[in-house]
Request: fold
Amino acid sequence: MNTDVITDIAQAEEGTSLWQDAWVRLRKNHLAVFGLVVLVTMIVIALLTPWIAPYAYDAQNLDLGASPPSAAHWLGTDVFGRDLLTQIMYGGRISLAVGFIATSVALLIGVTWGAIAGYVGGRTDAIMMRLVDILYALPFMIFIVLLMVVFGRNMVLLFLAIGAVEWLTMARIMRGQVQSLRQQEFVEAAVSLGLSPATIIRRHLVPNALGPIIVYTTLTIPSVMLLEAFLSFLGLGIQPPQTSWGLLISYGAETMEEYPWLLIYPGLTLTITLFSLNFLGDGLRDALDVRGSKD
Amino acid sequence: MGRFLAIRLLQAIPVILAVITVTFFLVRVAPGGPFDSEKAVLPEVKAALEAQYRLDLPLFQQYTAYLGDLAQGDFGPSFKYPGRSVNELIGAGLPVTAELGLYALLIATVIGGLAGVIASLRPNTPQDYIPMALAMIGICMPTFLLGPLLVLLFGIELEWLPVSGWGDIPGDKLLPSITLGAAYAAYIARLSRAGMLEVLSQDYIRTARAKGLPEWQVVVKHGLRGGLLPVVAFLGPAFAGLLAGSFVVETIFQIPGLGRFYVQAAFNRDYTMILGTTVFLSTLIVLFNLLSDVLAAWLNPRLRHQFGGKA
Amino acid sequence: MNILSTLAEYAGRAHSCASPTRVRTKHFPIWLKSLLLFLPLTLTGCVGGESNVEQGNREGVLHYGNGAEPQGLDPHVVTGVPENHLIRALFEGLAVKNPYTLEPEPGVAESWDFSEDGRVITFHINPEARWSNGDPVTADDYVWSWMRALHPDMGNLYAYMLFPILNAEAFFSRKIENFDEVGVKAPDPHTLVVTLTEPTPYFVQLMDHYSTFAVHRPTIEKHGKFTDRYTRWTRVENMVGNGAFVLEDWQLNRRIVMRRSDTYWDRDHVRLNKVVFYPTENVVSEERGFRAGQLHYTQSIPLDKIPVYQAMEDSLYVQEPYLGTYFYLVNTKRPPLDDSRVRRALSMAVDRDTLMGSVMQGSAYSAYSITPPGTLGYQPPKTFDYDPEEARRLLAEAGYPNGEGWPGIELIYNTFEAHRKIAVAVQQMWKDVLNIEVTIANQEWKVYLDAVSTMNFDIARRGWIGDYVDPNNFLDLYLTGGGNNNTGYADPAYDELILRTAPQAKTREERFAAFYKAEKMLMEQMPIIPIYTYTSKHLIHPSVCGLPPNLMDSLNLKYVWLKADRTSPSEPCD
Reply:
């Protein structure tokens, strides 16, 4: 049993047509297409930021200080007189990367772990799930501080640390789904056909549990983006003058009465991104609905 | 059923022991000790402090001594708060956090569950979009933002509710509970909607509908059972996680709960307090995950076989 | 915008229960007010009714924001500012600081006199001084308590406060066993004779520091070994003190309540009936509590709120220089910082005045020395100023013209909003003026402490708050090998000035001249880069009287009273 269950779906011979079908159906869902367009735009902007940002990301103007939106600074400036739009653009690079990469790590480990535990059951299940319990209980902050001391500060570590925390609930959800699906007729049929467990998990269990997985994934991305800010406070994450949406929002929250724009615009950016993500997620879920497609 | 519970409770022992062991050694390797302070500590002082707290013994001996005390229910003295035992600190904070968590989760499950189910009944209509959009806002709105916003509106501008405290002034429990509950409500709404949609397209639901059962019966009797499975899987760790999660809310509203102790203990390298809260947390996690598994089995009759004790 | 402001006005009218004691800052933003649109505005009525401040003004109860939750209340065990406020209300030293002048005035001792050579101080203990259980406070209490404070098993972090006493340090480090050899004697219950190793002009000041307070021997011995840290003697039901207030209630992370003592010798001058101390570690929440009328006094204020309060008529914001310096430690053992020219270049490239005006919101004063100006009349040397030209020249001289060949260094600070802001601004100043890259990194508190004490850093943020008003308290930090040196700076000539010349000086002028000379040497080597002199920053309700700002941010609750009808800080109290 290997760990690339998810990527295997795409490669499975049945999967190829599944993804093609899904794409056709997805295109008919206007909200999902809208979400996809917004997300792609965000990613493109993030990639192009160093060339298109209106100001240098660390250019300060202490005499200007925090100023509301103006012609020179469309979204205003922070206490250092730095352009907020530029900050949001650069912050997007970090937040989108953390959001997608860390969530993928969590997804990969969590789904695989939960599927195996739920499918195999018995003693294996017990050991795997108790291990999850242990990881839940360990003091997260001490773990982060240690990571930092041992490996120093770097982005890869940040992704790993976040992924390492976020997969636990994913595993529990996946296990619950698999346990419930296992007893259904189509799985029993697959078993009696003599298909290998890996194949059954890949072709029958994971696709059928996609709904909750996609939803939980779209829930994980925002929490990961905010967790990144917390890790930065502990010293593991990114360091100034680099920034991220999570950091911008938490700084903005501190001064929301004095400089509301410092909270509103980063918050709005995050919200729009997440709405798009959810539209896309729901669209994908519908488009990939295996049973629906077989009717 | 009884056998299943017995087995799971037995499994809890190695789990908790493993958590204690890993945590015990983890905190010792973390940089900085409990007595480091901004002003340099004289070596004589440090030696005296270590002697008072048994930290001068070999590490393994400290470990066995700790387990010995623990077996008698003694978590030891706190390093950060001399004169207080960890038992006392947990005893002081627990009732507050438990109450806060209970209210928050109550708000979260009732509002979130209801919103999710309602949304799932007519997917892709306003009945779906409105509660889901609200849920999205709930997810985007971290507690450190929602809390102050609520305080500014209801506490300072409108003066309807107290801005901080817990059990001091009537009504002071409302804002913290809502703040903590909102994030969970949003999660539960999204998860229950997804779960319901999944179930409502299943064959047995169609069969039930074909039999001509009224729609509400289909939803309540058959849909909810399977549809809430992901929520239940999420709730187990979520409830235990409230302990750590309530830290932010407790700080904003100045609530004397366990969440603050849990987080500050790690910052202070208060070894005994870290261990005490962690042991406590792991017990909660084991129990609530067990509870959530039992609930899942009850919701899904097909799973009940596992109580027969296959393991 | 019109709709927004109309809505805001409507929302503004919605609060009908505004009471005079609540603070209106008039800066509630329109966007927040317009959110009220989404609320059922038909809801009426005020929860809570009378605010803490109103009730307190009526009943003589001060509601005091005290920063963090105290570790405890044993004067020989705890350290920290919140603990200081509590302990100095429950206990009293031999001499106490007058909050207006900071000069020592009678406490437990009604007077004291010095021997001619200044090495022997005789304290005359007030015969009226009482413990809260009625026992008299005697000279023997002090001998025993100082033995406890110095005892090597005690682990008292502030034991060194008593080191000026003859043989005290030897007893502390187990060089002598018998406490009789230490220079503290009680010839009779009302006379305490203290012999010092050498004249220590600030010794009487130290009598107001809690580590030198007397504790009640029978109470401590009843609840365990006298050196135990883990004991119950400070609990409400057991606590015996000798201060103006007694402990009434102590709820963890919630509140500590004290009421006026009826055994305190000067009880007729205590005007508050009760004081409630709140742990307010979150400054943002604390400020909201003040605005909502829950607190009379805040321990601090969020930086960005300062201009808002200052803009108010009769501002309730009180700012005062504070005996502390904020600076950057430089590791003089690591290249390129081992070159004093580089250190001075870095220091000269920091535009402190701009920093204070912008990021610090005018809440601190530019510093060019380690000792805060005006410490007991001492004016430190100013050896440099903001000078980009000179800074570039020095850096070029050190081998990095226009930043060429600069190896890159790291500036660390412990996670805290204000530290971050300063570091971000300074980083950019160094880049702009010197064209050099300095990365900045925050660290969790204990990790940071570990890095500083092991000198595992290039540049590190640091602050020092004086324990007593004397330049010595700042300058002895940089003695060779000193525990708080952390820079690798070592200069025998400097040590000589601090350890020999200054203590043997005959006059204050002579002593300060030695300090001046030493500090000048220090600042020419620049192992530290001073940034600013601290200020104490509080929000104080107008009804609070007798709580003057001072250099030590020293509070004496005996002087405080509440005047309910005083509605502005500009009105007189009497």
Remarks:
- Residues 307-311 of chain B have pLDDT under 50 and may be disordered.
- The two ends of chain B are 13 Å apart (CA to CA).
- Residues 91-257 of chain B form a domain with the MetI-like fold fold (CATH 1.10.3720.10).
